[in-house]
Amino acid sequence: MKIGVIIKTHDGLWSVTRFLDSDTARIFIRMCSIQLSDQIKSIDIVQLDPCNPIQPPEGFEPTYTNFKDHKYWCPWCGELRYFGTSPEYRDYRFCSTCHISDADYHIRRFNKLDSRSGMPSVKATGGGEKLNRKIRKQKRREKLAKRIVIDEENE
Ligand SMILES: [Zn+2]
Questions:
Q1: What are the residues whose beta carbons fall under 8 Å from the beta carbon of 43, sequence distance 6 or more?
Q2: Cα 39 to averaged position of ligand 1 atoms, centre (Å)
Q3: Is residue 11 classed as helix, strand or coil in its secondary structure?
Q4: What CA–CA distance (Å, rounded) separates 8 from 17?
Q5: What is the whole-number distance in angstroms between the Cα of residue 96 and the centre of ligand 1?
Q6: Ligand 1 centroid to residue 83 C-alpha, Å
Q7: Where does residue 93 rank: exposed (0-12), middle (13-18), buried (19+ CB within 10 A)?
Q8: In whole angstroms, what is the distance from residue 137 CA to residue 142 CA?
Q9: Tens digits of per-residue pLDDT, 77-136?
Q10: Ligand 1 centroid from CA 145, angstroms
Q11: Distance between CA atoms of 43 and 119, rounded to whole angstroms?
């Protein structure tokens, strides 16, 4: 398992250091917290193994409220995180801790985001495309039924 330690300081520094096991990472964290003590704003451990995203807890469902608040399950932090904007890339949002963008496949998958628009997918909210298809089918059926009636009258 590859893990990263993300350190944020009060003067806006953001750094990620990669480790192959959690024991060395823990030693590193202890050293950093002694050396930088009062400058540190936060220390977070994130997962950097792209093959092993952390699954959301059982029963996790992306809700519209969370979507509106830009809170997504981050499979790299293993937590529900706020996704903020970046002045450089305005089309995307980024995890406040590990800075992964919402274009990430696993983030879209776990949070049921549409692959194109970044909105919650119609399948997740139970409306949109599916419903339209149902209405279209219904209309087609009605049209067909009418035609059959007309044909019968002509005979
Ligand atoms: Zn994250």
A1: 5, 6, 7, 8, 29, 32, 33
A2: 22
A3: coil
A4: 12
A5: 7
A6: 8
A7: buried
A8: 9
A9: 989 999 999 888 888 889 998 888 888 888 888 888 875 555 555 455 444 455 566 677
A10: 54
A11: 31
